[in-house]
């Protein structure tokens, strides 16, 4: 996939939590000159994902949309919302207006993380009617999680743009994901010594503008 082939809006989801969705989202946001939106933020004590993306990309407020829900505890949305006494429903969510050409939407946790008492993040993707880009770790354990996530997305007729692997390069896992998952690995993002706008933009160009 080249930069020109990215859809106007898409949803960055993952096989698990803590697997690099936000770094990937930051890379895509600065590379595409996009707008970033995280509909649900769970956990407010540390730097939020929106604050992180804003800081490392250096993009102005035109490129950042505030979260729909800001939940106190770093738990799954359904659990954190219950503690905060907040009700979350799919009808609460509408794609925000944006003028930057692209919208990068980042989910919370993996595709089957509960959003409320009945629905999951995957249902939010379907509700927003967006294609998904799946972020997975590159190392041991990724195959099962990646294949299950792909199966879940496809079972709901959610188009999958591809997979981005985060972590040290692993040729065996990359080939297996492409073969058995019948999906393209769009990029392999190795650990960065420092995460900043320059490094993220260079990585994006290496992956998507190197044609």
Radius of gyration: 16 Å
Low-pLDDT windows of residues: none
Distance between the termini: 10 Å
* Overall average residue pLDDT: 95
Question: Strand portion, in percent?
Answer: 15-25%
Q: What percent of residues adopt helix (DSSP H or I)?
A: 25-40%
Order of helices and strands: EHEEHEEHEHEHEHEH
Oligomer: single chain
What structural class should be given to the helix and strand makeup? alpha/beta
Cross-sheet strand order for the largest sheet = 4-2-6-1-7-8-9
| Outline | globular
The total beta strand count reads 9
The count of helical stretches stands at 7
State the major sheet.
Answer: 7 strands, parallel
Structure characterization notes:
- This protein has 211 residues and is an alpha/beta fold.
- Helices cover 35% and strands 20% of the residues.
- It has helices spanning 21-32, 49-57, 77-84, 121-128, 142-155, 171-181, 197-208, and strands at 9-14, 35-37, 40-42, 64-65, 69-71, 103-110, 132-137, 160-166, 185-189.
- β7, α5 and β8 (160-166) form a beta-alpha-beta unit.
């Amino acid at each position: 996939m080249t930069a020109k082939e990215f859809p106007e809006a898409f949803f960055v989801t993952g096989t698990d939590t803590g697997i690099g969705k936000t770094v990937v989202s930051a890379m895509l946001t600065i590379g595409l000159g996009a707008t970033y939106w995280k509909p649900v933020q769970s956990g407010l004590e540390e730097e939020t994902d929106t604050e992180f993306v804003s800081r490392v990309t250096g993009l102005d407020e035109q490129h950042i949309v505030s979260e729909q829900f800001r939940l106190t505890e770093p738990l799954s949305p359904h659990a954190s919302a219950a503690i905060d006494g907040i009700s979350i429903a799919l009808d609460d969510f509408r794609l925000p207006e944006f003028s930057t050409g692209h919208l990068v939407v980042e989910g919370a946790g993996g595709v089957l993380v509960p959003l409320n008492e009945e629905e999951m993040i995957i249902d939010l993707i379907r509700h927003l009617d967006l294609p998904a880009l799946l972020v997975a770790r590159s190392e041991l354990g990724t195959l099962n999680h990646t294949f299950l996530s792909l199966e879940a997305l496809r079972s709901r007729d959610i188009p999958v743009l591809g997979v981005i692997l985060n972590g040290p390069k692993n040729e065996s896992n990359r080939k297996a994901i492409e073969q058995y998952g019948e999906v393209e690995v769009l990029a392999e993002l190795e650990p960065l010594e420092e995460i900043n706008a320059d490094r993220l933009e260079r990585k994006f160009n290496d992956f998507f503008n190197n044609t």
